[in-house]
Write a structure and sequence with these properties.
Length: 550
């Protein structure tokens, strides 16, 4: 019995350590990446060669000058230099210096429950996070991400009766080449199409390629619990290697240079991301750079020649928004993997699907968590029943076990033999309650990640004082209820014979209550519901066993 207690205690402690570590990874403070400013002569990242028609041409390269360097005009753009674009979901700012999306606010997501300001995903400060595009010419002029563009208007709004909004910017060279950058927005979409139209009215061919990149600085807080820091950084996807994280430290160590077709790149953070999703069936060169404490993850297209008197286009898609899985699935294969459920994704994904379906019926995420907990308890009902039945039988045997301990207190070996004979006679397995609980632990961890990683629960209210299930209970009512339910469970379980273990077990409800004070209300709601259902099931089984039943 003591071994069973110790075994379960260690397993439960490991689960709590995993949960606490993951909580700190997503909510805890983050480390500052310490890097040195690179030299100005950093090597360009080569891009894929052109198609077979131009196979003899040299490989393209990312911009020869340091990509993404910010000019003074970009850093201090005035209101008159900036285009404002408003759709039903996005509030965008595009300075004419560079012509890039340097600010993106999500109108459907506020900073917090108490702050109704739209959440800023892309911006210039704290941290810097911007999307950049540009063209590079082969010995000819081309507008990179620092070029000066012209616009017909400075304010664009998606009207209520419109499904599409187009924002054109124009750049013209002295040799007769006009390039139009078009930002195309659609209703109910976080995808922005970025199209470069090259019109060559000159007398010579124009040859160049397009690049698109994300640029970011790390968050600036210190290390969290046990040194854990949240993963905020780059990811790439390819059909061969699937989902791959390219962390800030990876970018410092090496310059990624890889050709990928049908892939995408993204910079992710908790709940939100920005991603470049290029045209399918096109081979692009993916690259990384670090400059002046800023991290760059980008892709460049093959060379393309525009003959005199003709036109050509380069295109890409920028997703800038929340990690809503239905939307991500529709944009690109594998993009939903940015909702990182960890190594138990195979369990977490079905749990989220079930939770999402329940929410579509009841319309409240809090009640959805409670109903999902009911469902999980039903699935594991027989396993839980076996565990509680074993505990109830051990509790019934406690008087006889105590007598044996007192009788053979000086002979531990003989006492263990007598205890094993008693277990065999009564057909009780002292470890019978362990296996069912251990089988359920992966499900508990998987559901924890679902509740922690799903943006759908961000600022989702339940009832009364719980107005955001993704943050801690402001009045600590749920953690206290969790502690009470855990204490009741302790009373229903057979008490350890060892006095030290008795004190440890009695102190666990207090320890876990303190832990859960810092956890999101949605997770604590799950534990309270699960404990309450377990108490009911265990109480019924214990009464049945003590009354002489099976």
């Amino acid at each position: 019995m003591d071994n069973q207690r110790l075994f379960l205690l260690v397993a439960l402690a490991l689960v709590m350590l995993l949960i606490w570590t993951t909580w700190q990874q997503d909510y805890g403070p983050q480390r500052v990446a310490q890097i040195e400013a690179p030299v100005e002569t950093e090597e360009a990242a080569p891009a894929p060669q052109a198609d077979s028609a131009a196979a003899d041409s040299p490989a393209a390269a990312a911009p020869a000058r340091e990509p993404g360097a910010r000019t003074a005009t970009e850093q201090q753009a005035t209101a008159g230099d900036v285009i404002s674009v408003t759709t039903d979901l996005l509030d965008i700012r595009i300075p004419l210096e560079g012509g890039n999306i340097r600010e993106a606010k999500l109108l459907e997501h506020t900073v917090s429950e108490d702050d109704p300001t739209p959440f800023t995903l892309l911006g210039n400060d704290n941290p810097l996070f911007i999307a950049q595009s540009g063209l590079v010419g082969d010995g000819v002029a081309a507008p990179d991400h620092q070029a000066q563009w012209q616009a017909e208007a400075l304010n664009y709004t998606l009207e209520s009766d419109a499904e599409r909004l187009e924002v054109p910017l124009r750049w013209q060279s002295e040799n007769g080449v006009t390039i139009t950058r078009r930002y195309v927005f659609e209703r109910d979409s976080y995808v922005v199409r970025v199209i470069h139209e090259v019109e060559n009215t000159g007398n010579t061919d124009w040859r160049g390629y397009q690049y698109n990149q994300l640029r970011r600085t790390p968050d600036s807080e210190g290390p969290g619990f046990l040194g854990a820091a949240s993963y905020t950084g780059g990811v790439i996807y390819s059909p061969a290697d699937k989902y791959e994280k390219i962390s800030f430290s990876d970018m410092e160590k090496d310059d990624l240079s890889r050709d990928i077709a049908d892939g995408w790149l993204a910079m992710i953070q908790h709940y939100f991301l920005a991603a470049w999703v290029p045209t399918r069936e096109q081979n692009l060169r993916y690259y990384t750079r670090v400059s002046r404490g800023e991290y760059i993850l980008g892709q460049s297209s093959p060379w393309q020649t525009v003959a005199a008197g003709s036109t050509a286009t380069f295109s890409n898609q920028l997703f800038v928004g929340p990690k809503e899985q239905d939307r991500l699935d529709a944009v690109a294969e594998g993009l939903e993997l940015t909702v990182d459920y960890g190594w138990l994704t195979v369990i977490s994904k079905p749990l989220f699907i079930a939770l999402d379906w329940i929410h579509s019926v009841v319309g409240n995420w809090g009640w959805s968590i409670i109903l999902l907990t009911f469902g999980i308890k039903l699935v594991f009902y027989k396993l839980s029943e076996a565990s509680y039945r074993s505990m109830a039988r051990m509790r019934k045997l406690q008087p006889e076990m105590q007598k044996l301990r007192e009788r053979y207190s000086d002979d531990r070996q003989q006492m263990n033999q007598e205890l094993m004979q008693l277990y065999k006679k009564q057909k009780v397995n002292p470890l019978g309650g362990c296996l069912p609980i251990l089988i359920q632990i992966p499900v508990f961890i998987a559901l924890y990640w679902v509740l922690l990683e799903s943006v759908e629960l961000r600022q989702a209210p339940w009832v009364l004082w719980i107005q955001d299930l993704s943050v801690r209970d402001p009045f600590y009512v749920l953690p206290l209820l969790m502690g009470v339910t855990m204490f009741i469970q302790q009373k229903l379980n057979p008490a350890p014979m060892d006095p030290i273990q008795q004190k440890i077990m009695m102190g666990l409800p207090v320890v876990f209550t303190v832990f859960f004070v810092f956890f999101p209300a949605g997770l604590v709601l799950y534990w309270v519901t699960n404990n309450s259902l377990s108490i009911l099931q265990q109480w019924v089984i214990t009464r049945r066993i003590e009354a002489g039943g099976k």
